[in-house]
Amino acid sequence: MMIHTRKLKHKDKILIAAKRERQEKSRALVESGERSQESMFFIAPSIAKTAKVRHRVLSFG
Known about the structure:
The protein has helices at 10-32, 45-50. It is mostly helical.
């Protein structure tokens, strides 16, 4: 397991704490059955399945 040794700025700590709080709320909603895990996705599964992603690489250098 990698341990992060860099010092976090105060702003970063606030953002990380807010993220953890949202994650806990989301997990609680899924566990209680109020929301499905799929409903938490940023992109709807139906759109993700039909989307085509093209990768273009100009150089491998």
